[in-house]
UniProtKB/TrEMBL annotation:
Highest taxon in the source lineage: Bacteria
Species: Pseudonocardia kunmingensis
The protein, known as: 2,5-dihydroxypyridine 5,6-dioxygenase
Swiss-Prot/TrEMBL keywords: Dioxygenase, Metal-binding, Oxidoreductase
GO molecular function list: dioxygenase activity; metal ion binding
InterPro entries: M29_Exopeptidase, NicX
Pfam family, one: NicX
C-alpha cells in the first residue's frame, strides 16, 4: 500500500509554508492535541524541515471548556490545557511560527493575544485536505484583503440590504477592520488556512435594522443551512426580536438558554472574498470534520456574528457566525457586494 495521501498532504503544507515565508533561520512549533489529525502533524513537521526550519511538535491533552462544545466550531476558547501549561506557553511565545492543528484553535482565547504579542505568527488549520487544497491562497489574496480593509477604514457607514428584506446599517467609526487571507507572513499575526474575508467590529450602539436569513443561508456553529426565513430585529446592536420558522425558535432557544445577556449583541461583520469557496460543501461532510470555512468566507457573502466583542471587553463564548448569500453591502453608498456577488474592485 502506498502512502500517497500523506505525500499529497505534505506537498500542501510545504506550499502553504512557502506562503508563510518560513525560512531556515526560524523555529517552528507544530501544536496538536491528542485528537488532531496525525497526517497533518506529520505533514507540517516534514514541511517545516523542507524549509530548513528548526521544528518541534507539542501535543497537549484534549478537552474544551464548558459551556459550549469545542470541535471546529469557530466559537470556543480552545484547549484549556494550554492555560495551565506555562512551559508550553513560553515555548509558543519563543517560536517564530506556530502551526496550530488543535481541533478548535485559539480564535477567541485570551491566551492567543499573549502569544501573538510576543511576535509569534500562528496559522490555524482544521479543514479536510481537499478543502485546504481547493482554497489555497496566493500572495495576491493578502493584498486584496488588505485593500478591502482600507475601504472599510475609509468609510463611515456600512449598509446591508437584500431582496428578502434585510436593511441594516452600521456606523464604522473605530470599527477595527481586519482580514484573513489564508496564510501569515508577518510577525505577531494570526491567520486561518483556508480563508479570505474582511471584517470589522462596529460599536453596538450604532448597529440597527432588520436582518432576514433566507433558506440556505448558514448558521454556525450549528453548521446547518437555514430551511425557513428568519427575521431578526436589531436595535443599538442588540437582537430584540426573532420571528420565523424552526431556525427562529432555535436561535431564540440558544439565546435564552445561554442566560447571558451579551449573547444577543452583534459582534463582527464583513464580507467573504474567497472565490474558490464552495457554499454547498458542508452538505457533504459530517459536522465534526469541518469548520465550514467555505461558507464563512465565500466570495460575496455577508457574514454577521453575535456575542463577543473584544474592543468592548465582551468575551462571551456564545458566538454565532451567520453568512448570508443574497445581500448587497455598500460602504458610504458604494457597493462592495450586489445580491451576494462581489462588486467594484473585488469583482475582477
Ligand atoms: Fe466569528
Amino acid at each position: 500500500m502506498f502512502e500517497l495521501a500523506g505525500a499529497e498532504v505534505g506537498e500542501l503544507f510545504a506550499k502553504e509554508f512557502e506562503l508563510c515565508a518560513l525560512n531556515s533561520k526560524e523555529n517552528v512549533v507544530v501544536l496538536a492535541e491528542s485528537a488532531s489529525r496525525p497526517d497533518y502533524v506529520a505533514a507540517a513537521f516534514g514541511a517545516a524541515q523542507r524549509h530548513g526550519a528548526a521544528v518541534a511538535t507539542v501535543t497537549l491533552p484534549a478537552g474544551s471548556p464548558v459551556p459550549l462544545p469545542s470541535v471546529r466550531t469557530g466559537t470556543g476558547y480552545g484547549l484549556v490545557s494550554l492555560d495551565s501549561n506555562r512551559p508550553v506557553l513560553d515555548l509558543l511565545k519563543a517560536a517564530d511560527f506556530v502551526m496550530d492543528l488543535t481541533m478548535e484553535g485559539f480564535i477567541h482565547a485570551p491566551v492567543m493575544s499573549e502569544i501573538l504579542s510576543a511576535g509569534t505568527r500562528i496559522l490555524y488549520a482544521c479543514e479536510p485536505p481537499e478543502i485546504l487544497a481547493r482554497n489555497m491562497s496566493t500572495p495576491d489574496d493578502k493584498r486584496e484583503a488588505q485593500a478591502a480593509v482600507r475601504r472599510i477604514a475609509d468609510a463611515s457607514t456600512m449598509t446591508v440590504t437584500s431582496a428578502a428584506g434585510t436593511h441594516l446599517t452600521a456606523d464604522l467609526t473605530d470599527s477595527h477592520p481586519g482580514y484573513q487571507c489564508g496564510f501569515t507572513d508577518d510577525p505577531g499575526r494570526w491567520d486561518h488556512w483556508p480563508s479570505k474575508m474582511v471584517l470589522c467590529w462596529p460599536d453596538n450602539e450604532h448597529v440597527s435594522g432588520k436582518l432576514v436569513l433566507e433558506p440556505n443561508d448558514i448558521i454556525f456553529p450549528f453548521k446547518s443551512y437555514v430551511e425557513s426565513a428568519v427575521e431578526l430585529t436589531i436595535e443599538a446592536g442588540r437582537i430584540v426580536s426573532i420571528h420565523g420558522g424552526r431556525e427562529a425558535s432555535m436561535l431564540e432557544g440558544f439565546f435564552a438558554d445561554s442566560a447571558d445577556p451579551d449573547a444577543r449583541f452583534t459582534s463582527h461583520m464583513g464580507w467573504g472574498l474567497q472565490k474558490s469557496a464552495d457554499w454547498w460543501s458542508m452538505a457533504m461532510y459530517d459536522k465534526e470534520s469541518v469548520m465550514g470555512m467555505d461558507g464563512r468566507c465565500a466570495a460575496g457573502n455577508f457574514l454577521i456574528s453575535t456575542g463577543p466583542h473584544p474592543f468592548k471587553d465582551r468575551h462571551t463564548p456564545y458566538h454565532l457566525d451567520i453568512p448570508l448569500r443574497g445581500c448587497s453591502v455598500s460602504l458610504d453608498g458604494v457597493p462592495v457586494t450586489v445580491d451576494g456577488k462581489l462588486a467594484g474592485a473585488d469583482a475582477s
